[in-house]
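Standup notes
- DV: blocked on the single-chain target, sequence here:
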Amino acid sequence: MSVLKLFFLNFFKFFIPTSFFFVMLWFIFNQEMVKLEEEYLTEATNNMIKLLSADEDLLNNQYITSTYIMMLIKDRSIIGAVNVKNSDFNTFKSMLEETSDGLKESSKYLIYTKSFLCNKSKCRILLALPKERIIRRKMILLFSALISSVFTSFVIAILSIMNVLGQVRWYKLYSERLKKMAVYISHEIKTPLSILLLNLQNVNVDENTKIVIQKAINRIIKLTAKLKIIANIDIKPTNISRFNLMQLIKDIVDFYQHGLQIKNLILKTEGLNHVEVQTDYELLYSLITNLIDNAVKYAKENTHIVLRLEKGEKYVNLSITNVIGEDSNLMEELSYGVGLSIVREVAKNLGILVNFHKSNDKFVSVIKIPYT
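- DV (later): unblocked, structure below
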């Protein structure tokens, strides 16, 4: 995933919930804002009455305000008007002529009227606030909330990207160290094994045993070379060749056959004798041996491990079947085993399907190799 895509993913991951939260708060406090404006209007009217009541020269008093609309009558005669439009004059006048005091609403205004004494005469005052101003204030508040959401989400997304990039740098550094360690271990193991292989002829054992030891040492040397593959497990196979799969299986069986005497196990091959596949020989060899290792480890004593090769419609199918004991922790091995983790990674790189199933006391590993 590119850095830009990751940024937008993190941005919207935070922006959507925060903006939703702010908008919900705006709807919740929307009515409270109207009540707050009503309180301000009432307080402004009372303050205006105090001002006008204290002014002896009421007719010459001018109170200029750009926030509210004001109209004042004395003994039913208009003595003052501020910010009143001609189109609204008669509407305000009729409201002032009413006897009831308090808050009123029209389609365009929030209005407060009140009677009071001025110079021993009866006066009435009207203060009005255009509703469009209330709406404008609400929109400013909503816009501010959305801007806050954008800014907050932007900062969090940037910080998240910086954290991810830091983790990626650390992972690359750690991976490089692992690769160097794999190369070092491969070299250190291969050297004494090569010396042992050269001196094998001097070992006082029968020829068959020497052959088995030689195969085992060669196999270990190949496995040390595969440490580089494990360190770079995501590389693609480079040594693709066409070969008889049954012959590979028989080579593996011969390799294992002399080491199964402790549990008195027998490896058997069944099915087709000749099926050609085109893939990486060494990687497939490693995959199958890992599965056989698993089968040998959990097989019940005095039983057979059967390798059966069959043709399907789209795949060459190799099944490995073994009898397992009641106390086997094979399922835990399937979840956490390093060997089977390598099997899955190799299978993915080769385009091979591997699945497992258990039937009564038998455990079956199935390898599906596509035709090429």
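- Follow-up: Residues 3-138 form a domain with the Beta-Lactamase fold (CATH 3.30.450).
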